[in-house]
């Protein structure tokens, strides 16, 4: 039969490259392997690699418990890259991004909810005088407006009454004079699914929230759903790739992630300076909780919090 | 990310051998595959994440040969290659073959061709792949990635694999000829109808050659044969050229050694030393040599290009070879 024609004569170990191979690919790979053996002491996957592989493959082949949650045949699967707004010098060439798989029949709001950005967790306000009273409200709860921009149309999130139309400013600006941007529309995000949109692959679009936190969105791939994909609708939008950001550690103990940042601090060696909760209180407050020295303190949320 | 090193060479070598075997039988391909032990292409202690990427790239490369403008035999070879790579890959679950929406009609036509020409083994293999759910139906053929490439790699696939692009044939296809024939007959009949003698048209009405459709067909066939002969000659010439080119290269390198010493003097004197000027057909090779030495010989290139323009004789050498 056909299968027998292809299988090897005897079972060989796939880790060992055969000695007398006529394939150029294998010869090159062998050299690279030998170099690796000489230079690397312990050759195993680092935790970033394990995490990346896990993320990519953890949902493959999953089926839902509830049959109504099964993704149907003919559903489209989009691969969306959402870039981080952080602009560090080291990210000049390769901007970090996270990759999300979305179903065609899902609403835009579902994608919006799945985007985790550190600016959503910021707590505004200066709390040097009352460190224990840092409020519970994070920016995500306070400023709920957001919009997507696809192909000349702004999709605004209008689910809550406090959501404002952020795109109105832009539309008014472009209509003020003839700036050559054509007709920009503004519609509600919750009324549209991805199937309703016409998109370009590889073209940068925009997601804006918190008024000025902008993420570039690029769709890299559209394909039909496959038998081997995850078919549980509840798991979508599915995160399959995330950039690993190193967290900033406390300046004092260098162990815990920073939770406070101080400016104009007479007790700190640099401006701004990062502290974990314990070290912050030990340094800046005495046993009774009085403030020592002059400083301004803000709660800090590290971008690497999603690792 | 960049392509897998050496993979294109290996695939082209296998497909080339298959093309030379001049058959489309799967048994022949399987022999060639086993000779090279192609299934070992995935070996080498690769960890899971890297292995997924590698397999994806391998399948993507092989898939490119499956589509036009490649010759029929190459496409069948690519189908077998895809089958082989898909079955012997080490990834679990298996990586799939991406086919774009725009290519599907073409592939279905290809499958119909296979069935019509009774190449049942190829058709069976395609069906096996379909049943094994080996395809991803995508919008675009290539999965995008985000590296600012320093140099845009242009994939140069071998010319021999491509069907000779036959503009004349694509214009005057069988359908067109058939229709011309019909119209011609109709025209003749109309002429008969309106002329006095019902069996043949009036002499006054004969404005075109009666046989022109047949002549057109003959001319097209002639052109096709001529093109095939030219291809064969070109391939033969290439082989002989490669032998003679090796000798040219040696003389070139030798003379460059002396030129380096007198770089500035050359610009001044513009003397013509005994440098063998490579023929026009080898000019692309010449350019490559210069670029590798551009670091040390800035002054050399302008004088060289001046020499190129003053030497029309090499052009004639190419005709002599052909």
Automatic annotation (TrEMBL), chain A:
Keywords: DNA-binding, Nucleus, Transcription, Transcription regulation. Pfam families: SNAPC3. The keyword Ligase does not apply. It is found in: Nucleus. GO terms for biological process: snRNA transcription by RNA polymerase II; snRNA transcription by RNA polymerase III. It comes from the Eukaryota. One of its GO terms (molecular function) is core promoter sequence-specific DNA binding. GO terms for cellular component: nucleus; snRNA-activating protein complex. InterPro entries: snRNA-activating_su3. Its main location: nucleus. Belongs to the SNAPC3/SRD2 family. Part of the SNAPc complex composed of 5 subunits: SNAPC1, SNAPC2, SNAPC3, SNAPC4 and SNAPC5. SNAPC3 interacts with SNAPC1. PANTHER family: SNRNA-ACTIVATING PROTEIN COMPLEX SUBUNIT 3. Part of the SNAPc complex required for the transcription of both RNA polymerase II and III small-nuclear RNA genes. Binds to the proximal sequence element (PSE), a non-TATA-box basal promoter element common to these 2 types of genes. Recruits TBP and BRF2 to the U6 snRNA TATA box. This is snRNA-activating protein complex subunit 3.
UniProtKB/TrEMBL annotation, chain B:
Residues 303-315 have a biased composition (Basic residues). GO terms for cellular component: snRNA-activating protein complex. GO terms for molecular function: sequence-specific DNA binding. Pfam families: SNAPC1. It comes from the Eukaryota. Residues 279-322 are annotated as: Disordered. InterPro entries: SNAPC1. One of its GO terms (biological process) is snRNA transcription by RNA polymerase III. This is SNPC1 protein.
């Amino acid at each position: 039969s056909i299968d027998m024609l292809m299988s090897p004569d005897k079972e060989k170990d796939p880790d060992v490259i055969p000695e007398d191979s006529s394939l150029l690919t294998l010869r090159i790979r062998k050299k690279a392997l030998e170099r690796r053996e000489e230079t690397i002491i312990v050759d195993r996957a680092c935790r970033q690699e394990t995490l990346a592989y896990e993320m990519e493959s953890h949902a493959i082949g999953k089926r839902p418990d509830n049959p109504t949650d099964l993704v149907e045949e003919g559903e489209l699967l989009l691969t969306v890259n959402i870039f981080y707004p952080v602009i560090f010098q080291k990210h000049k060439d390769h901007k970090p991004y996270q990759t999300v798989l979305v179903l065609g029949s899902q609403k835009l709001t579902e994608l919006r909810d799945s985007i985790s950005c550190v600016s959503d967790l910021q707590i505004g306000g200066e709390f040097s005088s009352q460190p224990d009273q840092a409020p519970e409200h994070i920016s995500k709860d306070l400023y709920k407006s957001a919009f997507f921009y696809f192909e000349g149309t702004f999709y605004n999130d209008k689910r809550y009454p406090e959501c404002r139309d952020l795109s109105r400013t832009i539309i008014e600006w472009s209509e003020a004079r003839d700036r050559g941007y054509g007709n920009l529309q503004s519609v509600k995000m919750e009324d549209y699914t991805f199937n309703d949109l016409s998109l370009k692959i590889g073209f940068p679009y925009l997601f804006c929230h918190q008024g000025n936190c902008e993420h570039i969105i690029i769709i890299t791939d559209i394909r039909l759903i496959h038998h081997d994909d995850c078919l549980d609708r509840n798991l979508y939008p599915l995160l399959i790739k995330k950039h690993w950001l190193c967290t900033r550690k406390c300046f004092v103990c260098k162990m815990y992630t920073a939770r406070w940042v101080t400016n104009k601090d007479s007790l700190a060696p640099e401006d701004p300076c990062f502290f974990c909760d314990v070290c912050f209180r030990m340094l800046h407050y005495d046993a009774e909780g009085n403030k020592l020295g002059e400083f301004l303190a803000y709660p800090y949320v590290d971008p690497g919090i999603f690792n | 990310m960049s392509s897998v090193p050496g993979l294109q060479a290996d695939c082209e070598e296998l497909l080339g051998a298959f093309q030379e075997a001049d058959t489309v039988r799967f048994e022949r391909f399987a022999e060639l595959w086993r000779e090279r032990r192609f299934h070992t292409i995935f070996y080498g202690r690769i960890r899971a994440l890297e292995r997924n990427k590698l397999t994806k790239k391998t399948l993507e490369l092989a898939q490119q040969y499956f589509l036009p403008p490649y010759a029929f035999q190459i496409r069948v070879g690519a189908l077998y290659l895809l089958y082989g790579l898909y079955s012997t890959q080490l990834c679990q679950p298996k990586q799939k073959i991406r086919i774009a929406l725009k290519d599907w009609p073409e592939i279905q036509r290809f499958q119909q061709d296979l069935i019509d020409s009774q190449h049942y083994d190829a058709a069976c293999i395609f069906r096996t792949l379909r049943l094994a759910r080996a395809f991803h139906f995508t919008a675009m053929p290539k999965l995008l990635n985000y590296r600012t490439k320093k140099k845009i790699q242009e994939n140069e696939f071998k010319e021999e694999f491509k069907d000779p692009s036959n503009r004349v044939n694509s214009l005057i296809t069988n359908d067109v000829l058939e229709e011309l024939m019909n119209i011609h007959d109709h025209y003749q009949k109309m002429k008969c109808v309106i002329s006095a003698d019902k069996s043949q048209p009036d002499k006054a009405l004969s404005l075109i050659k009666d046989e022109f459709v047949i002549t057109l067909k003959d001319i097209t066939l002639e052109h096709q044969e001529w093109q095939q002969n030219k291809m064969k000659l070109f391939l033969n010439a290439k082989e002989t050229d490669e032998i003679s080119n090796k000798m040219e290269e040696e003389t070139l390198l030798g003379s460059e050694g002396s030129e380096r010493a007198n770089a500035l003097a050359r610009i001044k004197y513009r003397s013509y030393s005994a440098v063998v000027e490579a023929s026009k057909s080898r000019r692309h090779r010449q350019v490559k040599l210069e670029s590798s030495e551009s670091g040390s010989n800035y002054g050399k290139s302008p004088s060289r290009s001046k020499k190129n323009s003053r030497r029309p004789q090499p052009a004639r050498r190419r005709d002599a070879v052909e």
